[in-house]
Every structure is written in structure tokens, then in C-alpha cells.
Design goal:
about 750 residues; about 15% helix; 12 helices; Rossmann fold; alpha+beta
Length: about 750
């Protein structure tokens, strides 16, 4: 290219850049946020590493067959090969392939299990139809054809792939794939007896759904059985779908009330009587939170939490003799969390175990008899989660954030505990990093994002973290986001006297530092989550929209929130849910007013969802001198109305902590309301019952307090079901803010 051409090209480039710079930002509206994909960020779905670690499978569209193929991807070269064409997943007599909700391979990759036609159970779609594809014969067969449609749950192939087991209508079945014959292993399921799956509270609070396990030899199945008899039943009323109300009963143990009984048993896959483990303790006042077979053995490991959830007893159970022995007893003065980081090492003679016993969440190695324990990860930091345990290579890879609690990075430590933790994530990728690591720990799908960058997907090698290829840069999404002309999220720390808290803020795009602006606090505050993270979060478009209406949107994590700041941080709120957090938030709001001259302390608002809704009420009722306007969504008004596993974990029993329950429940302070308050709740909320809203409304009326209220009929905790719900909800909230908390700089 000669000099003249170069000059013309350069000038053209400058003109284009100037045009882009002068281009008017696209208007951000609520309608665009909730009805259009205005940013267009892309992701990756269905990535599964194969056992040999040479490649992974993905689901990719097959336009011709109107379905999706399962495609093999070479980890190094990126070469693709279709393993399962959508045509093979087309049932006889049908013109369309199965819609793949989930899939799993047999251990020898000779058979494929497809989950389809799914239906929701509580929060997740765990019920539907299963089909098995024999890759040697290309034959496709539906499982449980004699059972009602879309009732199968948690189907799993036997170790030798000759059979499949599944749950249907609270009973367990085994099906021989060659003959199609079905053996019913349990017959007492239904009504109050639940086999192979769980009741509402086990699923919600202990993350228990799949309730049975194949033995390694394929000859027996271990499973949970729950008996909900005696548990309080909460009824949801559906007034929408028929001219008479439909009553939906849900066994739901509230704080201090009777639990389901739970036990673990063994049954032969050929059928017969179930043998039960005689685990000590009242089965209604202990939780069997985890159970699994030890590899290549006939023993199961069972984790038993006491009702207070401050003691975890780990049992080894012999599936033949049904004998039990204790190998680990973990205790805490406050509460314990269940961790799913157990992996068997050294020929199954040691297992990994997560504990906070030294003040930080770390990974340990424990001998099979429980007599020997050694620390694997070391340092004054929390292990957030385990990404891969590479026994052959001698390392465990995990996520940690020793320096910045709002970010996440990959580290590794030697399994033998020697040496220091090594950071693997590059220093120039500041934000949140996620990894799907191959079984041999040589490759990983890496996803990087932060508050200003949508997810960036790449294949890397480990441990050098070198890029092999980019799957999706989301550059177009980043450019679309930039066109909106929004303010950058800013992170800050605020000193409330005895501790520093992390926070962020979003200012209006037209921010003027010489003026004072109202602040809307986006709050959560409970142990189940954190709002202050350096993550993409879809571009925070709702918060950005509100900022551009003339507000500064802020969020602060108080003590007790789920961030990696050590045991003392997380356990400080024990027995004081809604108490310490409210004090921290009020102190932080006051400190923020002193720290930033542009904050108008006469115009402070607060809103939150679920636990954040509860916190909003506590802030409004207890500190009316600070908070002038609030929106509480799907809130717990009285902690005695919530489920026992969650609330008792953090508060103890109401008989031993009556003052904590009283002082942590916002309903008891409703008389303190002085500002403007909007209550929002779904009447079909099976998690935080609409009862909370009605009881609070009753109390506010009693106290002669004026408020606004918006009930969404037959919407659940997420308030998203049925037509136009999400848009209507956010339009309503925006309207309430603008009418009740004056916007704009003054």
C-alpha cells in the first residue's frame, strides 16, 4: 500500500471514529431491558468433558433437522465431529428430534441418556421423559413407557449401562434396556411417603433433589425415604385457572415445627425388601444431607446434620451388614454449611473434606478411618469452590480471592499440603473467573467477566493459562453496551467504625459532582448471597436505568453476607439475622453521606427481594430518619413464618432464641414506619408465603400506617410467570420511585 492510500485509509478511519464518538447514545427504556435483547451477549451451553480429556461435547443447532447435534470438540485443534446427529434423536413416527434439556453418557460412552419434555417441580424442571440411545445400534427407546407421561425423575444408567433406574410418582424403578422390562423397587411412595427424591425444604435449603444412587457393582440401589406425615401443610390458593379456587397443599415445616422423617435404605436391583440403616438420633430432628457410595466398594458415606446444623456426623455404612461407624464429626459454635467437595484419593483410602476449623474455609485430606487429617490449602483466605482435584498431577485447583472479596481467581495447591498457594489466573483479567477443567487438568474452558466486560469464553491450557482458542469474545455485545452511553459501576469501601464494608455505585450518565443526588440502595444482607461482586450481571441495566432517571444506585455488603472474608465474618450474624445487618446498613448509609459530598441524605431509598425485602422493611421501620422510601419484594416479615432448615441454621430454635426472632423480624417494628413503602408479593409464592405480606399489612393497618401494595396472583418467589409479569413489575417499581423519591441533582 503506498503512502497516499495509507493516508486516505487513516483519514477514513478517523472520520468513522469521530462519527461514532458523536453518535447519540441509544435510549435505555424499561421495555428494551425486559422485552428485547439489546446487548446480545452470547454464551456456551452443554459443555461436557470426555473422560479421556482429549475433548468435550457441545450441543449445536441442526437447522435442517430442527434440533441439536451432540458434537465432539478436540481440545487442542478445535476440530469438530458430530457424535450424535439430531436425526438419531428423532423417535419413530415423529418428524422432529427430541428437545435436549440434559444428557449424560454411560461410563463406556456406548449409551446416551436424554432428558426432555421437562416440567417444573418447585423451582427446577426435574420431571419429564427420558430416552436412551444405543450408539452401537443407533436404536432409540423411551424409558418408562408404561408410566404416566413426563413423570420420570433423575434417570441414571447402571455402571455397566445395561439398565436404567429412575423415580416416578415417588417410587423407584429399574428398567432393563435390552428387554424393556421394568422392576418396581418401592411401592409405598405417594401421599406422605417420598422415595428417591425429597420434600420442599430438603430441596430448597439442602440442595437435595436426586435421591438415589447405583452401587458400583450395579447390584443394589441406596436411596432416601422421607415421611412428611405430621409436617405442617401450607396451602396456596389458585384463583386464576378455574371458576372455583384450586387448593395446592405443600408440606412445609416452618420454624420450630415438625420435620419430615428421613432415612436411607438399600434395595436389590432385582427387587425385594429394603434394608434400612439404623442411624442414631431422632429422624425428625436430624437431616441426612448427603449420601453416596465410596468408589469400588460396598460402603456408603452418609452426612448427618443435627437440627441446629452445628454438628455434621459422617458415617460409613456397610451395604451388606448395614453396620455403621463414625469417621468424622465436624462442629461449630454457630452453624455449618454442607460442602460438595468430597473426592476419594490414594486408592480410596483418603477423601477430601472442607472445613472452617482454622477460621478460613479450606480443603483437608482425611483418612478413610477418620484418624488422620491434614490441611491441603493453606493461608488466610477462603476457598470459594473446588474446580478440579488432579490426583495424578498432585494439585487441587480452586477459586479464591485473598486480596479482593468482590472478585474470583483460580489458584492451585499441592495435594500433599507442601508449598504455598499459587495463583493461576492472569493478573490482567481483573474480575470474575470461572473454569470448567478437564479430568486430567491440562485444559479448561475459561470464562472471564467483570462489571464492564460481558463474558469472554476461551479454551486455555493449564497450569500456564495460555490461550488455545477463543470461543466467544462478545465484542459485539460490548460495543452494543457502549452505545448506551452508561456510567461505569464504581467500587468503593466504607468504614463503619469497627469494619470496612465493600460497596458499589452507579451514577447518572449526566452526573454533576457539584450537585446532591438521591440514593437508592439495592440491598440483600443475608447469609445466602452477596450483591457486591465485580461481575457482568447482564450489564446491570435495571440499575443503570434508574440511575439515568436521576438517582445514584448503590449496594453494600454487610457482615454475614456470603463473601470470602473468613469464618468470623460469616458467623458473626448467628442468632441475629436482621439485627446486625440492619445496623451495618444504617451505619454504612450514614458513612456514605459523609464520604461523598454528592449524596443527599434527605433523599435515601432502599429496596430488595426476598432476604433483601426483609432487610428493606427492617431499614424502613428501624431507621426512618435515614430511609425515606422503600420497595420490599417477596419478603419475610416474620421469621417464624419461614422454613425451619434455613431460619434455624442461622437463628437457632425459637424456644432458645426468642428475643433474636422477635428483634430480627420486621413485623415487630412496623410502628416505626414514617416514609413511603411499597409491598410486592406473589400470591403463589411457595418459598416465602404470601402470608408474610398479609400479616404485615394487618399490622400496618393496626398501627395506622399508610403504604402501597402490589400483589401478583399465582406468581412464585421469582414473580415472572404468566404474560407481561416482569415488565409490569419493573414499570411499577420505576413509577413508584419517581413519584415518591424526588429524582435529580440539586
Amino acid at each position: 500500500m503506498n503512502l497516499r492510500h495509507r493516508l486516505v485509509t487513516f483519514l477514513s478511519f478517523v472520520i468513522i471514529l469521530n462519527a461514532i464518538a458523536q453518535e447519540k447514545p441509544l435510549a435505555l427504556t424499561i421495555e428494551k431491558i425486559f422485552t428485547e435483547d439489546i446487548i446480545g451477549a452470547k454464551g456456551m451451553r452443554g459443555v461436557r468433558w470426555l473422560k479421556d480429556s482429549n475433548g468435550y461435547t457441545t450441543l449445536e443447532a441442526n437447522a435442517e433437522k430442527k434440533g441439536r447435534d451432540i458434537v465432539f470438540n478436540d481440545a487442542v485443534t478445535g476440530e469438530k465431529k458430530i457424535l450424535v446427529n439430531a436425526q438419531l434423536l428423532t423417535p419413530a413416527g415423529k418428524d422432529k428430534p427430541l428437545t435436549i434439556a440434559d444428557y449424560s453418557w454411560s461410563s463406556d460412552n456406548s449409551k446416551l441418556l436424554i432428558f426432555t419434555n421437562t416440567k417444573r417441580v418447585w423451582r427446577y424442571n426435574t420431571k419429564g421423559d427420558y430416552w436412551a440411545l444405543n450408539l452401537k445400534t443407533n436404536s432409540l427407546q423411551q424409558l418408562g413407557k408404561t408410566l404416566p407421561e413426563a413423570t420420570l425423575m433423575f434417570a441414571k444408567l447402571s455402571p455397566d449401562a445395561s439398565k436404567a433406574a429412575y423415580v416416578s410418582q415417588q417410587n423407584i424403578y429399574v428398567e432393563d434396556l435390552a428387554s424393556g422390562s421394568i422392576t418396581q423397587l418401592t411401592s409405598d411412595g405417594g401421599n406422605n411417603i417420598i422415595n428417591g427424591t425429597f420434600d420442599w425444604v430438603y430441596e430448597e435449603e439442602l440442595d437435595c433433589r436426586d435421591g438415589f444412587r447405583w452401587s458400583p457393582d450395579g447390584k443394589s440401589i441406596a436411596y432416601w425415604q422421607l415421611d412428611t406425615k405430621g409436617t405442617g401443610v401450607f396451602s396456596i390458593i389458585n384463583n386464576l385457572d378455574s371458576i372455583y379456587p384450586e387448593i395446592i397443599p405443600i408440606p412445609y415445616p416452618k420454624v420450630g415445627t415438625t420435620n419430615s422423617s428421613c432415612k436411607v435404605g438399600m434395595v436389590a436391583t432385582t427387587g425385594g425388601e429394603t434394608k434400612w440403616f439404623n442411624i442414631p438420633g431422632d429422624p425428625r430432628n436430624n437431616y441426612l444431607a448427603r449420601m453416596d457410595f465410596i468408589p469400588n466398594s460396598n460402603e456408603v458415606m452418609i452426612q448427618q446434620l443435627n437440627r441446629l446444623q452445628n454438628t455434621n456426623t459422617v458415617w460409613l455404612g456397610d451395604a451388606q451388614s448395614m453396620a455403621l461407624k463414625t469417621i468424622v464429626t465436624e462442629t461449630d459454635k454457630a452453624f455449618l454449611d454442607i460442602h460438595d467437595n468430597i473426592e476419594w484419593l490414594r486408592n480410596n483410602q483418603y477423601f477430601t473434606w472442607t472445613s472452617e476449623r482454622d477460621g478460613w474455609r479450606h480443603l483437608y485430606s482425611v483418612s478413610r478411618d477418620g484418624k488422620s487429617t491434614s490441611l491441603i490449602t493453606k493461608g488466610n483466605f477462603d476457598v470459594v469452590n473446588i474446580s478440579r482435584i488432579d490426583e495424578k498431577g498432585g494439585y487441587v485447583y480452586y477459586i479464591a480471592t485473598p486480596e479482593n472479596f468482590t472478585q474470583r481467581y483460580l489458584y492451585r495447591s499441592r495435594i500433599d499440603g507442601k508449598g504455598e498457594a499459587q495463583r493461576v489466573s492472569p493478573v490482567d483479567q481483573s474480575g470474575q473467573n470461572r473454569y470448567t477443567i478437564s479430568p486430567n487438568a491440562k485444559f479448561s474452558l475459561h470464562v472471564f467477566e467483570n462489571h464492564s466486560n460481558p463474558p469472554f469464553y476461551e479454551m486455555i491450557s493449564l497450569p500456564d493459562h495460555k490461550q488455545i482458542r477463543v470461543f466467544e469474545s462478545n465484542q459485539a455485545a460490548k460495543e452494543n453496551y457502549a452505545k448506551l452511553g452508561l456510567s461505569q459501576k464504581e467500587f468503593f469501601r466504607v468504614d463503619i467504625g469497627d469494619i470496612m464494608l465493600d460497596g458499589w455505585m452507579i451514577k447518572p450518565a449526566s452526573f454533576d459532582s457539584t450537585k446532591k443526588y438521591p440514593v437508592i440502595y439495592n440491598i440483600y444482607g443475608e447469609p445466602a448471597g452477596s450483591t457486591v461482586q465485580d461481575s457482568w450481571s447482564g450489564g446491570e441495566l435495571w440499575d443503570q436505568y434508574m440511575a439515568n432517571q436521576g438517582y445514584i444506585v448503590m449496594s453494600i455488603d454487610n457482615r454475614g453476607t456470603n463473601v470470602p472474608r473468613g469464618r468470623e465474618w460469616r458467623k458473626s450474624i448467628y442468632g441475629q439475622i436482621g439485627i446486625i445487618a440492619t445496623k451495618d446498613q444504617a451505619a454504612a448509609a450514614t458513612a456514605v453521606g459523609k464520604k461523598f459530598s454528592f449524596v443527599d441524605m434527605g433523599r435515601i431509598g432502599v429496596w430488595g427481594w426476598s432476604g433483601g425485602g426483609s432487610m428493606t422493611l427492617n431499614c424502613m421501620f428501624r431507621n426512618p430518619e435515614i430511609y425515606k422510601t422503600g420497595i420490599a419484594v417477596a419478603f419475610v416479615a416474620d421469621q417464624l413464618l419461614y422454613d425451619n432448615i434455613y431460619q434455624e441454621r442461622y437463628m437457632g430454635l425459637p424456644t432458645t432464641n426468642p428475643e433474636g426472632y422477635k428483634n430480627g423480624s420486621a413485623i415487630n417494628f412496623a410502628a416505626g414506619l414514617q416514609g413511603k413503602l411499597l409491598l410486592v408479593h406473589g400470591t403463589g409464592d411457595d418459598n416465602v408465603h404470601y402470608q408474610n405480606c398479609e400479616r404485615l399489612v394487618n399490622e400496618l393497618i393496626k398501627q395506622n400506617k399508610l403504604f402501597s401494595m402490589l400483589a401478583y396472583p399465582m406468581r412464585s418467589h421469582g414473580i415472572y410467570e404468566r404474560e407481561n409479569t416482569t415488565l409490569h413489575l419493573y414499570r411499577s417499581m420505576a413509577d413508584y420511585w419517581l413519584k415518591n423519591l424526588p429524582a435529580g441533582g440539586k
